[in-house]
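2024-03-11 09:14:02 DEBUG pipeline.ingest accepted 1 chain
2024-03-11 09:14:02 DEBUG pipeline.ingest length=239
2024-03-11 09:14:03 DEBUG pipeline.predict start
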Amino acid sequence: MKKLTLLILIFITLNLLAQGNSGIPYTKEEVPEIINEIESGSITTDEEIENVYYLQRGDKIKIEVMEHPEFSKDVQVLPDGTIEYPILGKIRVENMSVSIFKNVIKDNLKPYVPIPVVTIYVTQIYGERVNIIGYVNQPGSYQIYKPIDLVDAIAIAGGITNIRKVKYVKIIRRDGIVLNIKLSKIWFSENQMYSTEGRILLKAGDSLIVPPPMEFNWSMISAIVSIISLGITIYTLTL
């Protein structure tokens, strides 16, 4: 009888503990679904593109000047944020709206074309991104132009909500490889894996996951303690 009672109590306690751990978020299988839930804006008309979209490094642009093929050209925004354009040379366009860019081209062409009619098409938006989700202040999908350091990635997402409570982060590479990184180690340069020469970088298509810290369920702990106390009492009475 005593053994049966203890076995029942142990089973109940383990079941409660298992339920307490079942809420840990972001398993490997859940990550694709979480990433798909990151919302992105949609641009549907030329007017929206001109007034809303701001050019970025890597974007491909088609410039058409009516009846002047010598000034019509396909260009790409270079890594330094500029484009090369006939006669005008290098023009900085990064973070410039399409509408403003069109006016810049028109104004600079006036010495060569009395009434320039300019049309701008963004033919390809640069799409190299990393996903940063979980216990950060600004989770989302972020555009990058080259591999970025883990610390920089955390910074662009607004930092960790409460860095003292987070012990590790997880990186899921585009090819499915998973890295578990202890935050305490990224500050120590003497550790080769985390040194400046061997620092961990996020590349296009990678996902950085900052798991929220586990919060103690005090009501569950109280229930477990009560069950254990009851078990001890029953065991004592049956001696």
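2024-03-11 09:14:41 DEBUG pipeline.report The first strand starts at residue 60 and ends at 65.
2024-03-11 09:14:41 DEBUG pipeline.predict end
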